[in-house]
Write a structure and sequence with these properties.
The chain contains ten helices and 18 strands. The chain has about 375 residues and is an alpha/beta fold. It folds into two domains: about 240 residues, TIM Barrel; about 120 residues, Lyase, Ornithine Decarboxylase, Chain A, domain 1. Strands 1, 12, 13, 14, 15, 16, 17 and 18 form an eight-stranded mixed beta sheet that branches. It has an eight-stranded parallel beta sheet with strand order 4-3-2-11-10-8-6-5. Strands 7-9 form a two-stranded antiparallel sheet. Helix 9 links the parallel strand 10 and strand 11. Helix 2 runs parallel beside helix 3 and helix 7 crosses helix 8. This is Type III PLP-dependent enzyme.
């Protein structure tokens, strides 16, 4: 939630327009929490969640590794102080020339999920380590992610076998249990599939070493979520259950769980209105919307806490929308928010726990509204 440092910054600086304030102390605490709960697991921060140079430098200094999706993200991690052995090219959809550039920069760990991608890596980054992403159902996640990425476990056997034949190191298996995973046992079925792949390939003379547990670690929005130690315990139990004494190397790729609760967005009410006199729900238009950094409100998947100075007043249902001339720029309508009836034009609100996937979704000045301003404190 918004820290006193964030609130004091906004009160002192009074920045104009919507802006994100990120507290590095919260990110430091989050990293140390992961490190304490999962001491045998390497942390690969998902750069896409928030690539601010100050965030990357802090994490590099703490010893974090980095999960990157592109050559620019690789270069950001290197600039922040990470060495190439601490960087994974975790996108399963890569141009061959980008693989070659990453290899030139010293990166030797690549995600794949198809025969064609293995062939690219073999040509452009010979001798590298590859891990194959498998499909999962994402049960328990607010935002399942499996359809675009990953292959069936049966196909993963062929993918990793080919990698071995082409001179790559078939290093392991990865999966993603879905963003904002709320079940502490959400990794169990994917680890069962991973263990089967390990055993089958071992019978073929191919020894895998690593399981990439992916991300999915949540941030608290409107609902309580388990803490990192509870997830660590669930993962530890599933590893023992499916791998026995032969526990593989493990890595995690937290993004939202690392930076989500480290940020708050200050926004302003532009308009409060109704469409019909008898409407029970008011429309509250903010100066930030889907195209200003709140893209994860799509399908109302992520429901951010919204706070105001009038929160002690009587509340009523509100449909919340952004300022742009696009009818898709409605944040919450299916399930209206209960906001103060006294909320009015010019009031400021705080949209809490917005440290992840906000600045990166606000890169274009759609309708002339500038990208989301960011302050790192």
């Amino acid at each position: 939630m918004a820290t006193q440092r964030m609130i004091d910054f906004l009160a002192d600086r009074r920045p104009e327009g919507p802006c994100l304030v990120v507290d590095l102390e919260v990110i430091r605490d989050n990293y140390l929490r992961f490190a304490r709960a999962m001491p045998a697991t390497r942390i690969f921060y998902a750069v896409k969640a928030n690539p601010a140079p100050e965030v990357l430098s802090l994490l590099a200094n703490l010893g974090s590794c980095f999960d990157t999706a592109s050559v620019p993200e690789i270069e950001m991690a290197l600039t922040a102080g990470a060495t190439p052995d601490r960087i994974s090219f975790g996108n399963t959809i890569k141009k061959e020339r980008d693989v070659a550039r990453a290899h030139q920069l010293g990166v030797s760990l690549y995600a794949v999920d198809s025969i064609e991608e293995v062939e690219k890596v073999a040509r452009a980054a010979p001798g590298s380590r590859v891990f194959c992403r498998i499909l999962t159902d994402g049960a328990g996640a607010d935002w399942p992610l499996s359809r675009k990425f990953g292959c069936s476990p049966a196909m993963a056997l062929d993918v990793l076998t080919l990698a071995h034949k082409l001179g790559l190191r078939a290093y392991g298996v990865s999966f993603h249990v879905g963003s904002q995973q709320t079940k502490t046992d959400g990794w169990d079925s994917a680890l069962a599939q991973s263990a089967d792949i390990f055993r089958t390939l071992s019978d073929r003379g191919i020894t895998l070493s690593m399981v990439n547990l992916g991300g999915g670690f949540p941030t608290r929005y409107l609902k309580e979520v388990p803490g990192v130690p509870a997830y660590a315990q669930g993962i530890e139990q599933a590893l023992a259950k499916h791998f026995g004494n032969a526990i593989p190397e493990t890595i995690i790729e937290p993004g939202r769980g690392m930076v989500g609760n480290a940020g708050v967005i200050k926004a302003e009410v532009v308009l409060v209105s109704k469409k019909h006199v008898e409407d029970k729900a008011r429309w509250v238009y903010l100066d930030i919307g889907k195209f200003g950094g709140l893209a994860e409100t799509m399908e109302e998947a992520i429901r951010y806490p919204i706070l105001s100075a009038r929160d002690d007043d009587q509340v009523g249902p509100c449909i919340i929308a952004g300022p742009t001339c696009d009818s898709a720029d409605v944040l919450y309508e299916k399930t209206p928010y209960e906001l103060p009836l006294s909320l009015t034009v010019g009031d400021e609100v705080l949209i809490d726990n917005t440290g992840a996937y906000t600045t990166t979704y606000s890169a274009i000045a759609f309708n002339g509204f500038p990208p989301l301003a960011t302050y790192i404190i």
